[in-house]
Amino acid sequence: MSKKEKYQQIVTDILKEIGGKENIIQATHCMTRLRLNLKDMGIPNDENVKEIPGVLGVMRAGGQYQIIIGQTVNDVYDVFTDVASLSKQPTVEELNEEDIRKDKGIKGVFNSVLNKISGSLTPLIPLLVASAMFKMFIAILGTGMLNVIQPADDLYKALTIVGDAGFYFLPVVIGYTAAKQFNTSPIMGMLLGAIMLDPNYVNIVTAGKPFSVYGIPVSLTNYGSTIVPILLSVWIMSYIYRFLNKYIPASLRTIFSPTLTMIIMLPLVFCVLGPLGGFLGDYICNAILSFGKLGGIATIIGVAIVGALWEFLVITGMHLVMISAMMLIFSQGGYDNFVTLGAVAASLAVAGMSLGAALRLKDKQEKSLALSFVVASLIGGVTEPALYGVAIRYKRPFIGMMIGGFCGGLYAALTHITAYVMVPVANFLALTAYVGGNSSNLINGIISGVIAFVVAAIATYILGVKPKGVE
């Protein structure tokens, strides 16, 4: 059976179960679901619809009958509208305004925020996977493992360029994806990201020269590879840009809307929104580091907390503060028995989470993608693809990952292991940080990593990847 015939069969079976095209008012779709407004919501039998080959689950939300199809929903939707003689509608968000109004309060706001973040980061998966693979090539072929290529070799430099570019220019790419989520101009969003990475500004930051915008002092921050500053900036820009478009005459809008938007956003980006992530990061990281100074049970719990929260810090860019603390600790004492223990456990928990998700997912494409994340993190040492492609996208695996990181960090602290080397990778080689002490130190270090990996995989599998009825 060809793909087209398969989609036609799915559509035929769906129409039969929902009362035919006569029962349909309107059909839209989002990233994974066929969303139907039906005249009589009592006709469909959810269990029968779930049994249709190609259907992953059913949800009733926001007055819609939502049929979860997965990554092939675009193809199914095209066939569905043709067969049912319906006009095609624009793609909608996973969580629309009607859903939010129905689910009010803290939970509704929290889900809305998560979905906006997920919608902004999920499209980055191809970019992150490609960049991660190039970093993996460097890790395998470079001096850390096979020693086939050296940093001075052209091939090493070429691989590094591709691997670094994908992450460094995240603000520009997220400027585009976030703008689509916040219903504003993608080009203006990209411009905000480009402003953050402008070489002139980077040179000012590197030199540490005083800089101001309209007389307002700027907190010099390097925004390369960051996420939170551009997300906040595009969010605020969406309101400003819409406001200006509403009140500026159409004949002048093309020139004045983008120009005035940038005039307003410039001080907001450099003086408020950009530094905000770093400001919050300092307080969060310092609070975590304070556990390490207390000793006893507080330090043990502190290491476990670092293991649980480390990847959250990575997502927000706050981990750079912790890394600075690690560098200071190593430079002063020559070893670390706090931050590194949790960070290493957390890194291996990412791979475990990806494996657990891969074992639970039913869609072949999603399963294959999750397995590629295992390789990217465990060998390539790049956790972002798994974080954005699994943890944030499906939400539940994030909890499984945190449990794994917590348990791995807890074991490391309980056995009083020490890191003697600051290993700048997040793959399995991070366990070599425990080389330098006695053999039991290395053995327990490896065990802590295995615990983080296995517990994260099991926890993710048990918790599930999607809500009940979707998997």
Automatic annotation (TrEMBL):
Key word Kinase present: yes
Main location class: membrane
Membrane topology: Multi-pass membrane protein
Active site: C30 (phosphocysteine intermediate)
Tree of life domain: Bacteria
Molecular function via GO: kinase activity; protein-N(PI)-phosphohistidine-sugar phosphotransferase activity; protein-phosphocysteine-trehalose phosphotransferase system transporter activity
Location relative to the cell: Cell membrane
UniProt-recorded name of the protein: PTS fructose transporter subunit IIB
Organism: Enterococcus cecorum
